[in-house]
Fold this sequence. Notes:
By secondary structure, the chain is mainly α. 31% of the residues lie in helices and 2% in strands.
Amino acid sequence: MAKKQSISVWHLIRQQLDQRLSQRPRYRLRRLVLPRLTLTLTVTLMISLLCGGLLFGGPAHADNFDRMNLRQQDFSGQDLTGNDYTRADLTEADLSHTNLEQVRLFTTRLNRANLEGANLRGATLDGASMVGANLKDAVLEGAYAINIDFRGIDIEGADFTDVLLDPKDNDKLCEIASGTNPVTGRETKETLYCP
Length: 195
């Protein structure tokens, strides 16, 4: 019983103190405005984090399209820098004049895809299937291209400077190499070190 009375007394003292302090303008400001301001800032911060930092200029990020079916999609002229298309199916996709710099295309199907004028600098194409693909005027500078199926590919004006290729694939590409890349000004045969 003594405990109950001490709690009640404490509660009464607290109420009287609150009443006296509430008459002071500073206390009202602290009691009414600050909680609302804190809530507003918290909600704003949460929204910015949920939106990927877009409200305050959040960092750029790459998208992952691993194993996705993207057949016949039109990506022409887009900036797809750093995206991951590992094992994706981009058969007959339009990737013309697209920025594919640093893109991962491990074992991706690019059969009959249009990559005309695409920027593939530093891209990883290992194991990709590019049967009948159009690489006319594409820039592949510094790309990794081991074990690729290049049958029926069009490489007129493509730039293969510093591309890591299997020697057998390099020889096959030299047989069909022609043209000069309009962006870099390099001849396709020279970039492949063709005899």
